[in-house]
Amino acid sequence: QVQLVESGGGLVQAGGSLRLSCSVSRRLYSIRTMGWYRQAPGKQRELVATLSSTGTTYYLDSVKGRFTVSKDIAKNTVDLQLNSLKPEDTAAYYCYANDYTNDYWGQGTQVTVSS
What we know:
- The chain has strands at residues 4-7, 10-13, 18-24, 33-39, 46-52, 57-59, 67-72, 77-82, 91-98, 103-105, 109-114.
- It is built from no helices and eleven strands.
- The strands form two sheets. Strands 2, 4, 5, 6, 9, 10 and 11 form a seven-stranded mixed β-sheet that branches.
- The protein is mainly beta and 115 residues long.
- A hairpin with a 4-residue loop joins strand 5 (46-52) and strand 6.
């Protein structure tokens, strides 16, 4: 089984930056895909970014050029760097993992961007 714990959320002014971290209980080489989703009040959950075990990335169009997903093998974490934040980025951000047979979710961390 895989346990995911997010950290790094908080309140930031528009134009600022945050770095979210997802701590993974299993060695990253055993996981097919890591990702970040977000969900704002009254809206559906949407995929923000993914990172495969081979390094392939995907980004939501609205965050391209501003967000970067990466992994730290030594620390067993998957990080999401959020730059040039906008009020519309405000949401609960969830870490996601897939190991070919199962999906796993973290509890979420809140990102709030003030104008």
